[in-house]
Amino acid sequence: MDDSLVDDYVNSNETTKNKNVMPQNLEAEQSLIGSILFDNKILEDLPTNFTSNYFFDPLHSNIYDASISLIDNGRLADPLTLKNYLSDNKHNLDIDIEQYLIDLRDGVLSLSKARFYAEEIRNCYVRRCLIVIADELIHKANHPTIDTTPDQEISNTEEKLYNLAEKDQINSGPSDFKTVLASTTKQINSAYNRKGKLSGIDTGFSGINRHLGGLNKSDLIVLAGRPAMGKTALATNIGFNAAKSSTSDKNEAILIFSLEMSAEQLAQRILAEQSTIDSHRLRSGDINDDEFSKLVVTQNNIHSLPFFIDDTPAISVSQIASRARRLKRTNGLGLIIIDYIQLIQGSKSSESQGRVQEISNITRGLKSLAKELNVPILALSQLSRAVEQREDKRPILADLRESGSIEQDADVVMFVYREEYYLDKSEPSQRDNENQESFNERFIKWQDRRSAAEGKAEIIISKQRHGPTGIIQVQFEAKLTRFMDLVQNERLPDQIY
Description:
By secondary structure, the protein is an alpha/beta fold. It has helices at about 5-10, 25-40, 60-70, 80-85, 95-105, 115-140, 150-165, 175-195, 205-210, 230-245, 265-275, 280-285, 290-300, 315-330, 350, 355-375, 405-410, 420-425, 435-455; strands spanning about 220-225, 255-260, 305-310, 335-340, 375-380, 410-415, 455-465, 470-475, 480-485, 495. The chain contains 19 helices and 10 strands. Strands 1, 2, 3, 4, 5, 6, 7, 8, 9 and 10 form a 10-stranded mixed beta sheet that branches.
């Protein structure tokens, strides 16, 4: 919530010319300021997110900020030291600031109630913000615009309410470097204590974890591939591995927006992969009693995992944001997966600007959401047909559909590539006027390549803001729609560049 909005609203809105109608408790503000002046150590007992913006009276806000500055510099905050920093303030010209500070300090009855005063001040602040949000909603509902739909207004209002509800996100605006540095050092220390292990969410793939350090908070990770490469299967594997990993100890949900497949289809894939039962046989019901029993056991083992599927078709970024915020508020949220970017519905205003601009707005919205919720977003993307025109089918960044915006907004871009798929489509046949010996030689070469590529796939990291790019070799089981680390004796070394 932008704190200036509250002041602007109070000063300009005709229904609130009398500021007393706005929730406030000046006595609590005076008591808290007095407690701080009486004993500076009181600040240590206040909530860590308490800020001067919570005060209704600008003078009290200024006194609080000046006190913090003095104390942070190892100095005493009392009426004598503060008066020089406040006397020139426009709000203080009509009062004796020193006497006012003395009266606040001497009027303290109990230091033990300071934290309760702080909570009351914050509660009044939140109520003021709610009035502003409600008034804005009423105004926009009564004065609709062509570019904004009612659903968008709901989403915008929900976003404001979410930010207001999140203690750590109430204060928008710049963060001082001291705070940022402390947070960064804490992250580094946490990674150090893991002894080289993950800093982010466990993907279940050692190569990806090694390159990326897991999926990191606020990152937009794009996973792209041509149809039939297995990008949905890989994303689902990653999501389910994350749900089973240590992050689930924090009850952080994994949320998949499946815009192409139904929730039942996705669940069936997961059951096939977890039970190691052929997915085709599972779909057709062609399983025996032992396999059915195995399926039941698998279901019982995984049904309570923090794994959520939303299969709403043609969903917009604002709807994704609203549902993600709601889930984070109620269940916690560790990872968002979106399958896939090109199926997300753009805004009405961007439709006339062309598909490239529409995708640009979508990816920018997803990156903003990742930062807002402080979670990684793994978004799948289609590739252009240009891949099929080249002899080397391995994808590159330029193959991304609407590549400029996706490449720019993504923190990580990964491709999934299976040479086996293309080799199956290119089985050689004997050419006209080709002798048998020459054909046999070509066929054997193809067989050797096909055999070497069987059951293998490459995850190509083509962009990463935080570390190296490279190629990771993994195993793919088509019958189970499952990607895995290569078994030890078959494992090829990752290529790093």
